[in-house]
Amino acid sequence: MDNTTQTKQLLSDVLGLKQQIESMTKETPLLGNIPELDSVAVVAIIVALEKNFSITIHDDEISAQTFRTFGTLIDFIDKKVASKTRE
Fold it and tell me: If we measure between CA atoms, which residue out of 81, 70, 57 comes closest to residue 1?
């Protein structure tokens, strides 16, 4: 399963989104567009991402830009996974 599919599943699980997830593209806005995505949900998503992808996400790596769109979140995950494999 690729990073995009895994992240869609993770968002669906954490946010309780079912049908919305299927139509999500890289251009889909996240912050401000999905009411379920509040500060508590962001923390839950970060924890789930760390566990699912076996990565470590530091506080200073996260900003509103990371969660601006589904694509920016995927780009962030792709970079973290790629840097993990280089270690």
Answer: 81
Q: Check residue 65 and give its pLDDT.
A: 95
Q: What fold is seen in the domain 3-86?
A: 1.10.1200
Distance CA 86, CA 54 (A): 14
* pTM (two decimals): 0.91
Predicted local distance difference test score (pLDDT) of residue 50: 97
Contact 15, 37 (CB under 8 A): yes
Distances (CA, A) of 55 to 7, 59, 68, 77, 87: 13, 13, 21, 9, 11
User: Where are the chain's structural domains?
Assistant: 3-86
